[in-house]
From TrEMBL:
SMART domains: EXOIII. It comes from the Bacteria. Keywords: DNA replication, DNA-directed DNA polymerase, Exonuclease, Hydrolase, Magnesium, Manganese, Metal-binding, Nuclease, Nucleotidyltransferase, Transferase. It catalyses: DNA(n) + a 2'-deoxyribonucleoside 5'-triphosphate = DNA(n+1) + diphosphate. The gene is dnaQ. It is an enzyme of class 2 (transferase). This is DNA polymerase III subunit epsilon. PANTHER family: DNA POLYMERASE III SUBUNIT EPSILON. InterPro entries: DnaQ (IPR006054), DnaQ_proteo (IPR006309), Ribonucl_H (IPR013520), RNaseH-like_sf (IPR012337), RNaseH_sf (IPR036397). Pfam families: RNase_T (PF00929). GO terms for molecular function: 3'-5' exonuclease activity; DNA binding; DNA-directed DNA polymerase activity; metal ion binding.
């Protein structure tokens, strides 16, 4: 049996080493690449401001986040959800794992080894070299409905990524050859070149017009030099 945790994070910026923090974690459990229905979701008080250009991406303001727990108070439940056997799956995994491990080490906990991490961006780049391989592009390529993705959201993006991941791994049918075939199929994509139950919260619904979306994109292009939200290597799952 292969147990995987497909997850995404939202943050206050790009670098935990420079003071950026997690603001949201969303995760979806898979067994043998198929969803079990178990999910994890948590907003996090970053204990700092959230820059306007980042709020424009995920919609999470300092005011919204201030009453949620800090990472130290939710670390145990996230670790329990991942479990000892969970393989972590993320899109542009370097970004998400750097934040997760930084937060864990900050509170005296051990970070996750990268021998148990799968990077779907690396898989996509090998399958579709030269093509756009961010989450939206992959959803379109595989016919995954992402029409509700007006803002980045960790649980929504984790759910979309889980569907994309199944397609990257060859479709959503269980292997007829059993666990050995699943493990063999899985093994080559472990990312290696780096140095609980559901938690429900009130849904966030954001609707933006085409004009607002265009204005946001123009802002990133003109005001945020080299913005990774416009490239194949943006935060969380938008690669």
């Amino acid at each position: 049996m292969v147990r995987e945790i497909v997850f995404d994070t939202e943050t206050t910026g790009l670098s935990p080493e420079k003071g950026d923090r997690l603001v949201e974690i969303g995760a979806v459990e898979l067994i043998n690449h198929l969803p079990t229905g178990r999910t994890y979701h948590q907003y996090i008080n970053p204990e700092r401001d959230v820059p306007e250009e980042v709020v424009a991406v995920h919609g999470l303001t300092e005011e919204f986040l201030k009453d949620y727990p800090v990472f130290a108070d939710i670390a145990a439940e996230f670790i329990d959800f991942v479990g000892e056997d969970g393989i972590l799956v993320a899109h542009n995994a370097t970004f998400d794992m750097n934040f997760i491990n930084y937060e864990l080490k900050k509170i005296g906990r051990e970070g996750y080894g990268f021998d148990r991490v799968v990077d779907t961006l690396e898989i996509a780049r090998k399958m579709f070299p030269g093509a756009k391989n961010n989450l939206d592009a992959l959803c379109k390529r595989f016919g995954v409905d992402n029409s509700s993705r007006t803002f980045h959201g960790a649980l929504l993006d984790a759910d979309l990524l889980a569907k994309v991941y199944l397609e990257l791994m060859g479709g959503d049918e269980p292997s007829m050859l059993g666990d050995a075939a699943v493990k063999e199929k899985h093994a080559p994509v472990i990312f290696s070149d780096f140095k609980g139950e559901r938690i429900f919260h009130e849904a966030r619904i954001f609707a933006i017009s085409e004009e607002e979306e265009k204005a946001h994109r123009e802002f990133l292009e003109t005001k945020v030099k080299g913005s990774i939200w416009l490239s194949d290597e943006s935060t969380g799952t938008d690669q």
